[in-house]
Design brief:
Number of strands: 4
Number of helices: 0
Structural class: mainly beta
Strand order of the largest sheet: 1-2-3-4
Radius of gyration: 11 Å
């Protein structure tokens, strides 16, 4: 599976939608934020690429 900056994804740990902000392939990490954005912004956090669910369903429009 290939993840790109700007993609909307889901994590294996929950069913919320997240936007990929940055990717570090060398360390198997990416930075995401909850999507759609909250009114005062959404915090960015780091997750393992292995925790990203394979895309299967289209993501909801924001």
């Amino acid at each position: 599976m290939r993840v790109h900056q700007g993609d909307c994804i889901r994590l294996l740990s929950d069913k919320d939608v997240y936007q990929v902000i940055a990717i570090d392939d060398h360390h198997d990490r990416c930075w995401v934020r909850r999507w759609p954005l909250q009114r005062h912004g959404s915090p960015v956090f780091e997750v393992s690429l292995s925790s990203v669910e394979s895309p299967g369903q289209p993501m909801p429009a924001a």
